[in-house]
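Researcher: Can you fold this with glutamine in place?
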Amino acid sequence: MEPNQPSTPAQEAWTVQRILLWTTGFLKQKGIESPRLEAELLLAHARKCARIRLYTEFESIVSDDERAVMREMVQRRAKREPLAYIVGSKEFYGRNFDVGKGVLIPRPETETLVDICLDSIPKDSPSHIIEVGFGSGCIAITLAKQRDQCHVTATDVSSDAMRFALQNVAKHAVESQVRLLQGDCLAPVQSLAAVDPDLLFDGLVSNPPYVRDDEMATLQPEVGQHEPHTALQAGSDGLDIVRRLVRHAAELLKPAAFVALELDPEQCAVVAELLECSGFSDAHIHKDLSGLNRIVTAVRAA
Ligand code: GLN
């Protein structure tokens, strides 16, 4: 780890500023898109301080311990491991969620999915929502935090997801509102409904796996090589999970209940039609913050 400095490197101290400059150059060379920002986030993590603090500490010497931590993190990032896995958390809807290997990192598009659901969830009366594929738990937990009478029954097939989501439910203190069930797609909810035929929900939300098999090889290394394929990949048209979800959704929902699904822009029109043939009406396609078709909603036909 030697910087390109004109003066004698041996005598020059590793200050915050010098480490930031060196790391920025190194990450840039490794193809990282926002090298300066990431250098700052990593150094702030190594020094256990807020990123903004670094700017008042430019001349401070970085300790040997902090440099050792930093060196290890920078090496991992150079191998294109996602920053969120290295620092162990990701912000979503203004809150911090624990993440790590085995769980999908919350995406900004999914904040739009949450916003759309919140439009259909009452503030002052109880509601019961199903979520399929909870991952880190970011959707279920955010709905619970934003609507204190909202209860979410969420499923995920992955035990890694269960571990992180349980941690996040505890961290955000929503144990009384979020029920996590391990199992495939809607199966755990169907089991509940089998013993309680009156069990019907007010809405269903999912950010399912929706990447086509042939697209997997084109994903950024951070995603394709590091994030769990079970959370991403869904068959030759990316709709394997969506089809199974839609087939059994209506029977678990009350009349007029909503469904909201995050999808690839190219899948939205076909899924809108699929919903209209599967007991839903009033299908709408919504754009994400990048202006791309991203979310399909519909309501359970009466
Ligand atoms: N949009 C995601 C991506 O980054 C895909 C997430 C998903 O399949 N639900 O590739």
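Model: Folded with glutamine in place. Strands lie at 89-92, 95-98, 127-132, 150-156, 178-182, 201-206, 253-262, 280-287, 293-300.
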